Amino acid sequence: MLRQFLIPLLYYKYLSSQLILRDIKGRYKQSILGYAWIVFNPLVQLLVYSFVFSVIFKFETNEVPYSIFLFVGLLPWIYFQTSLTASALVLVDNSNLLKKVSFPREVLPYSIVFSKSVDLFFSLFLLAIFLMFFKLPIPLSVFYIIPLFILQVILMLGLSLFLSAANLFYRDIQYVTNLMLLMWMYLTPVVYPISLVPENYLWLYKLNPMVGIIEGYRSAVFNTSFDSSSILLSVLISISVFLIGFFIFKKGERVFADIV
Amino acid sequence: MSNFVIQLSKVTKKFYLQEDKTFKEFLPNFLLGKSWAKELTALDNLSFVIEKGETIGIIGKNGSGKSTLLKLMAGVTAPSSGEIKVSERVAPLIEVGAGFHHELTGYENIFLNAAILGMHKKEIEEVVDNIIDFSELREFIHVPVKRYSSGMYMRLGFAVAIHVNAQILLVDEVLAVGDSAFQKKCLDYLRGIKKDKDKTIVFVSHSEESVKSFCDRVILLDHGKIIKDGEPEIVFKTYHQILKI
Hints:
Number of strands of chain A: 0
Structural class of chain A: mainly alpha
Structural class of chain B: alpha/beta
Order of helices and strands of chain B: EHEEHEEHHHEHEHEEH
Strand content of chain B: 25-35%
Number of helices of chain A: 12
Distance between the termini of chain A: 26 Å
Shape of chain B: globular
Largest sheet of chain B: 6 strands, mixed
CATH architecture of the largest domain in chain B: 3-Layer(aba) Sandwich
Strand content of chain A: under 5%
Largest sheet of chain A: none
Order of helices and strands of chain A: HHHHHHHHHHHH
Number of domains of chain B: 2
Radius of gyration of chain A: 19 Å
Helix content of chain A: over 70%
Oligomer: heterodimer
Largest interface: A-B, 23 and 28 residues
Radius of gyration of chain B: 20 Å
Helix content of chain B: 25-40%
CATH class of the largest domain in chain B: Alpha Beta
Number of domains of chain A: 1
Number of strands of chain B: 9
CATH superfamily of the largest domain in chain B: P-loop containing nucleotide triphosphate hydrolases
C-alpha cells in the first residue's frame, strides 16, 4: 500500500507538474482579468459575507475586525470548496485519457488539489496586506499555518479521491458534492465565531475535521491559544479519510476505463 | 529463452452493459436480487504471444474486439480473467491528441502530452525540435491548439506519439491523419521503425492494403475469438469468407 502510494509521487512527478500547470494556465485563458481572478474571487465573497454578517447580523469577534476574522476562515474554505468541486469532475472530464493511456489515475485528482493551492498561496499575500492595513501584528505563530495546510491537504486528497471515483460511476455525485459543500460551510466556523455554537453540541460539531483546521488557522494568525483537542481529532479523521479514499480509488481504478 | 514483449494467456474480457440507470428502476431490481447488468463477452479466451520486432496486424469486423484488445495492451483496462504480460513501455497511437488542452499552445501541449505518455522532462527536451519538424507546424507552434484545424491537431498528436521512446507502438486507424502527403510520411516513418527490427508495432486497421503492405503477421478476430493467425494473404482469405456469410 505504501509503495502504491509513493509510485505516482516518485515516477510521475513530471506528469503531475504538467497537469498542475495545465490547470493553472488553462483556467484563466481568454479572460480579461486573467490571473487577477485568483484574488478577485475571494475579495468579492469577502465583501458579500462581511456586509451580511457584520452590518446586518452584527457578529461579535473580540478585538479583531469582522472582515479580517472572516478572511482568515474564508481563504482555506474557498480552497476546500473549489478543489472538491473541481475534483468531482476531474476523472469524467479526462475520460478520453482514461480510455487511452495508462498512468496512475490518482495524479488527476491530486493535480487539482495542488493547482488550487497556488490560489490559496496568492490570497494569503492579500491577507498579509489586509493585516498591515488594519495595523494588526503578524505574529510568529503564523508559521503554524504550514502544518495546518498539510493537514487540510491530506483531508482534501482523501475526499477528492473518493469524489472523483464515485462521480465516474454515478454523475449524481457532482450535484451531491455542491449541496454537501453548502451545508458543510455552515457547519464550519467560517462566517461565524465558534463561540456561537451551543456548548452541548460542541463535541458533535468538532467531529467535522474542518472545525479544527479553520479554528487552527485563526489561532495561528491572531496568536491565540490552539484548541489542541479539536486539531488532534481533525488529524485522526483526516488521515482516516485519506486512507479510505485511497483504498476505494484503488479498488475502482481497474474498471475506470470500462465505465466512463 | 522466449523473446516476447506481449503475452496473453487465456485472456477473457467481459463488459457489463448497464440498462437500469435511474434509481427508480435500479432499486426494485436490486431488492429482488436481479442482475443489474447484462454481460457481454468482448474477448473470449485469447492466448498468443507477440515477439520483439514483429509487426502485427489485427483485423476483424466492427465489434469483434480489436479495440478492447488494444486497450488491454495499453494497460488501461484489466482482463476479467486470464493474464496479460507486457514487458516494455507502450506508446498508444490510439486517437492521438487525447489529453491536449485546447487553450494551451502547441508547444505547451507537446510537453503535456508527452508527459501523459510517460516521458520525462529531459527526454522531451531532446526530441521537441524533431516533434515540431515532423508535425510541420513550426510557424503555428505558439498558437493555442483550439485555433488549429483538425488536421493540424492530429499531426501534432501523431508527431508526439511517435517520438515517445517506447518499444511497443499501438496504432489504431490513426493513418487517417491529415492529407495524403502526411499519411505517406507517417507510413514511411513506421516502415523505418519496422526495418530496425527493434520495436514492436501492433496495427489495427480496416484497410486491407495498408495491413498487407505493412504487417508480417495478421490476427483475425471475430466475436472476441481468434479465427486465424498467420500470413497476411491467408488470413485475409478467411476474412473475406467471414464477410460474405
